[in-house]
Amino acid sequence: xxxxxxxxxxxxxxxxxxxxxxxxxxxxxxxxxxxxxxxxxxxxxxxxxxxxxxxxxxxxxxxxxxxxxxxxxxxxxxxxxxxxxxxxxxxxxxxxxxxxxxxxxxxxxxxxxxxxxxxxxxxxxxxxxxxxxxxxxxxxxxxxxxxxxxxxxxxxxxxxxxxxxxxxxxxxxxxxxxxxxxxxxxxxxxxxxxxxxxxxxxxxxxxxxxxxxxxxxxxxxxxxxxxxxxxxxxxxxxxxxxxxxxxxxxxxxxxxxxxxxxxxxxxxxxxxxxxxxxxxxxxxxxxxxxxxxxxxxxxxxxxxxxxxxxxxxxxxxxxxxxxxxxx
Length: 327
Description:
The protein contains 16 helices and 7 strands.
């Protein structure tokens, strides 16, 4: 994860490296903002590919403007492997950096051997080398919760976990979803249904109707809703998430009932809304714990199909799961 770079002492050279584009760009923007506060108002961008003329960078570094001497030279490397001309140029620049310029180098993750090279060590001595680490799946819920809090949005664990499950591997999508939530629900406590509607970005999206139809035991309506969701282009992962979540909840409650607890107490302990209690009673009466566990196994299989780890037709499997859930 990126460090904060606000209100720090500016240095002549920054090297920002990492494979998580969003976090790298946010770190760079933080540096630019701080530089701008210190009157580094001009910005030149160089894209260094294999044919890049490194003399252009040196020429800009030595150029004195009549109007504004302070400028940011932003060097974006197309590869984390720099040719000999590039290494020599960066070494010379870092050995004696100009006082009126800030060099911001942006690149992909650098290997250990690269960080042991002379040019890298010289840059690190003259400025700062910032390694930006990606957000792991374990860190993602915390990252989302922090971002929501920054936007004055209150969200419970269900909302945060839903966002994490449906944006894992795409941090930009998570950021965009949070920005959209902030725009629509400023200073508000967000519900799960509102979140699902935002992430789906589809006014006809209703996986909750699918779950309710299955819970009520209406096989025909369940199949019809699933077909509608497919025709509307709803992602299978969202449908599976809704079904599997409800099956897991039912499995937990069925286990509690099997241990001798009263159904009213079980529904209360599991925070079932009053209007959903009749549906949950129907589901628990119709579905045994043994059957619910088999449904969870099938849901796990569908998850592997979606991720490409197992063969099969995902829509056929979703239809089978939905029908078994509702039968």
